[in-house]
């Protein structure tokens, strides 16, 4: 696994933890929860884009 993918996975784990802690005791529609979720989604999309790109170059 490339260093870039490892770094993105670390970021994903950090954002998941942040989302979990941000969402504790709040409704899902809370702006902070929504923002944390959107950021996680962006990074997940980037991760899957890179995976797909690497598969094409094999």
Structural notes for this entry:
With 58 residues, the protein is mostly helical. The protein has one domain. 81% of the residues lie in helices and 0% in strands. It is built from 2 helices and no strands. Helix 1 packs antiparallel against helix 2 (31-56). The relative contact order is 0.16.
What's this, in brief?
Helices cover 81% and strands 0% of the residues.
Poorly predicted runs: none
Q: What count of structural domains?
A: 1
Question: Can you give the helix content as a percent range?
Answer: over 70%
Oligomer: single chain
Strand content: under 5%
Distance between the termini: 13 Å
Count of DSSP strands: 0
List the helices and strands in order.
Answer: HH
Instruction: State the shape.
Output: elongated
Architecture blueprint of SSEs:
Blueprint: H1 3-23, H2 31-56
GO molecular function: protein dimerization activity
Protein name: Spo0E like sporulation regulatory protein
GO biological process, one term: regulation of sporulation
